[in-house]
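Work Package 3 (structural annotation) set out to generate three-dimensional models for the target panel prioritized at the project kickoff. During this period the team completed the workflow that converts sequence records into discrete structure tokens, so that structures can be stored uniformly alongside our sequence database. As a representative example, we reproduce one entry of 359 residues exactly as it appears in the project archive.
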Amino acid sequence: MHQRTIPPTGSASTTGRRRLARKALIAASALGVATALMAPVRAGAAPAPAAPTAATPLAANGQLSVCGRRLCNASGEAVALNGMSTHGTQWYAQCVTGGSLDALAKDWRADVLRVSTYVQEDGYETDPAGFTARAQKFVDAAHARGMYAVIDWHMLDPGDPNANLSRAKTFFTAMAKKYKNHPGVLYEIANEPSGVSWSAIKSYAEKIIPVIRAQDPDAVALVGTRAWSSFGVSEGSDESEVVNNPVRASNIMYTFHFYAASHRDEYLSTLDRASDKLPVFVTEFGTQNYAGEGANDFTMSQRYLDLMKRKKISWTNWNYSDDHRSGAVFKTGTCDGSTWTGTGVLKEAGVWIRERIRQ
């Protein structure tokens, strides 16, 4: 859907201990958070996970879970997270800094950061240990600022997630081991499958989710859908293939992606129908065309946002970088500087999405 080009199970006692550890993270002192907020995110240095203050989304909501067709907080109340996705961290790590994440958490008032680890395109496959450490650094930095983190396995080409099954098992084992006691992660196991059947995607999910659950039995897993996470619409299908043959796992949601200038009423109607029958998380969308560029269609975008607000569907917007395309929120060159707050550093799409996250 979004074609990008390269830019310049434990025992009951164990589960109980994990839940207590997660609660302890939430209950930690505000002093530790203040220290974390003042510390920069340095290349090669992962900030120690710090518990958020009560004012933050993470402290207010705690461990998330899927209840019915909704994402719910630790009290069982339906919640909707709103935030941003990074661009590929192999290209735009310089846009994910202490200053930029302070702005996202405090100026934008975001609930969640999606950390996108590309598998190909000079990404994870070139340096598995390095990109795992980089993802953990950014997840830790989001947590230190009281935001949730979506750990995005950004497979794109090849479109069959099974082509990277072994790599995915290695990556998610490492990530789930690290965050098994932390309430602030969601695992997105396949960004945008394409050119492959739903049954193949389902088979992949039923292999990867147990890998995560073996380490982290409590966190929500997000499952990509057919045809660039369009519930199959971009390849002539619809959500019925998932409704009639769901993944055999609990505490999961299905992902949907849209780009408003390209994906019109058929896609909006699909999201509406699918979310009546399935738990859905929109982990990626843009106000532009499917390539994340061109003119913004804010009118169509608002129709999507109104639907998602009404149905409490969580979302992250693409993308928190200064890429030259119109879908990147920052003006080109911003990430070389140190100013992140306000609207002066933002493109038109950035001004628009910041305002809606702040609402």
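DSSP finds 13 helices and ten strands in the chain.
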